[in-house]
């Protein structure tokens, strides 16, 4: 918080006294804000879970920037506890793509233990930015498109919002395509797991199968070249929700509810559900001589009408829960952000469904390479830089403080108007984060050929490179003299 010269007004301390809340104060004649912290690298998490909810109705909002769906959620309207957040994640994890992702890793040659380690590592990494980005949703009660106005600008916020929306449309298409083919549901999975263990002769033959990366095997010496892209794919899998998690945490009672709920609901549930998928896929390799990653084919080889009917019945609920929460809320809000005055949530949802079909999702899941290397790693090239900018803006530039009124105002009244509603620093940082991995993406899609292996190596770590590069560039550009004014104004709230 940037305070008026002469001391810390909230704590009523004088200009030469230390404030009890470690606020940033200024001396009467100081040129730059001075932190009272004795250590320059004091953890940013100081008071992280204790921040008060500051959601309120914005003053003098522009009618073009607000509607009932986009208004801040006040503390009195919060209904989500830690249990609700954990249940939310468990519901999302129990989905067809989770099974497909585990099966795809098996198809790449990994054994059960490696798959589970990869899933645990990737989702543990994902959890951190998920919780960090959930903080402003709780504190200010705003959805993701509104939050992104602070970093990208009032108009520029459409860039990250639409980017996230297009990825969600792709996922919506995948979920609907798979659901339309009736290939999976949790009841069928449990039944299939029991069938697999029995038919394969127990867990021993299933889980003791040799790795294809072992000496003398077809992929000997190639493990790390597969493992890191697989970790990137795991991070990318829920990297979409990393961006728009404020859409849901805005309904949490407090920071502890969203922090604990997500910690309980995401990593461990992913590992447990992955193990079931791995068990069934491993069994298919033992029983049929090759892993069957497509549950439709596996279901067709099973006997008994009852399990199949149960899977068809339960699939409807599994598809709806994941699609509504993960793949409709984000794009619908993004389309609302384009014109809150004219677009409703219902209209945004219908547009999402239409684009989901136009994207031709069946091509995205046609093979393991398409699903992991092209789809998951591909969109991480763009989403990684976005989350890097959002988090660095909120935690480093803004110090967890936003001018809520300015998020809903246009023109010079808004601290986030920048240049015509666009923040050049955010756009430059986004470009800097995307460019290093773009050649690898073009090569993966066969748009470019003959590139050195270096570009493929960068592409395999696209999310991590995008987050790092965009964060560094954004912070440096926002530290430039011309950016200090708007940053200070926003922090003064």
UniProtKB/TrEMBL annotation:
Main location: membrane
Residue stretches spanning the membrane: 86-103, 110-132, 152-174, 186-206, 226-245, 266-290, 310-330, 342-360, 372-396, 416-442, 454-477
Keyword Membrane included in the entry's annotation: yes
Keywords in alphabetical order: Membrane, Transmembrane, Transmembrane helix
Organism superkingdom: Eukaryota
InterPro entries: Pur-cyt_permease, Uracil/uridine/allantoin_perm
Listed Pfam families: Transp_cyt_pur
Subcellular location: Membrane
Family matches, as Gene3D superfamilies: Hydantoin permease
Membrane topology term: Multi-pass membrane protein
Protein's UniProt keywords contain Membrane: yes
Similarity annotation: Belongs to the purine-cytosine permease (2.A.39) family.
Entry-linked PANTHER family: NCS1 FAMILY PURINE/PYRIMIDINE TRANSPORTER, PURINE-URACIL PERMEASE NCS1
Official protein name in the record: Permease for cytosine/purines, uracil, thiamine, allantoin-domain-containing protein
């Amino acid at each position: 918080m940037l305070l008026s010269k002469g001391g810390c007004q909230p704590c009523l301390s004088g200009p030469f006294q230390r404030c009890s809340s470690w606020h940033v104060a200024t001396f009467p004649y100081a040129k730059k804000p001075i932190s009272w912290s004795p250590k320059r690298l004091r953890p940013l998490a100081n008071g992280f879970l204790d921040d008060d909810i500051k959601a309120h109705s914005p003053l003098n909002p522009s009618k073009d920037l607000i509607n009932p769906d986009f208004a801040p959620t006040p503390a009195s309207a919060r209904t989500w506890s830690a249990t609700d957040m954990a249940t939310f994640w468990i519901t999302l994890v129990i989905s067809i793509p989770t099974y497909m992702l585990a099966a795809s890793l098996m198809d790449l040659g990994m054994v059960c233990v490696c798959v589970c380690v990869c899933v645990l590592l990737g989702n543990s990494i994902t959890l951190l930015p998920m919780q960090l980005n959930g903080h402003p949703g709780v504190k200010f009660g705003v959805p993701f498109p509104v939050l992104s106005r602070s970093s990208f600008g009032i108009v520029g916020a459409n860039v990250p919002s639409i980017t996230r929306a297009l990825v969600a449309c792709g996922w919506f298409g995948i979920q609907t395509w798979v659901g339309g083919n009736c290939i999976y549901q949790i009841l069928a999975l449990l039944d299939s797991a029991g069938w697999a263990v029995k038919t394969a002769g127990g867990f021993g033959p299933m889980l003791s199968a040799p790795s294809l990366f072992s000496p003398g095997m077809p992929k000997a010496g190639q493990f790390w070249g597969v493992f890191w892209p697989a970790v990137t794919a795991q991070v990318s899998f829920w990297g979409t929700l990393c961006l728009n998690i404020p859409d849901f945490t805005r309904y949490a009672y407090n920071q502890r509810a969203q922090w604990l709920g997500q910690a309980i609901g995401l990593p461990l549930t992913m590992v447990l559900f992955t193990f079931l998928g791995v068990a069934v896929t491993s069994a298919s390799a033992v029983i049929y001589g090759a892993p069957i990653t497509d549950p439709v084919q596996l279901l067709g080889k099973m006997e008994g009408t009852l399990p199949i009917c149960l899977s068809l019945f339960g699939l409807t609920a599994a598809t709806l829960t994941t699609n509504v929460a993960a793949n409709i809320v984000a794009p619908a809000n993004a389309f609302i952000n384009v014109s809150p005055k004219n677009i409703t949530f219902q209209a945004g949802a219908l547009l999402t469904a239409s684009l989901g079909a136009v994207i031709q999702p069946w091509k995205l899941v046609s093979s393991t390479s398409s699903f992991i290397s092209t789809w998951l790693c591909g969109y991480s090239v763009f989403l990684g830089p976005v989350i890097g900018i959002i988090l660095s803006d909120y935690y480093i530039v803004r110090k967890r403080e936003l001018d809520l009124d300015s998020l809903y105002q246009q023109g010079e009244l808004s601290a986030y108007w920048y240049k015509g509603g666009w923040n050049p620093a955010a756009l430059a940082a986004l470009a800097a984060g995307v460019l290093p991995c773009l050649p690898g993406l073009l090569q993966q899609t066969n748009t470019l050929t003959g590139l050195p292996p270096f570009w493929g190596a960068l592409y395999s770590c696209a999310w991590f490179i995008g987050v790092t590069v965009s964060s560094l560039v954004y912070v440096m550009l926002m530290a430039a003299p011309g950016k200090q004014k708007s940053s200070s104004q926003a922090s003064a709230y």
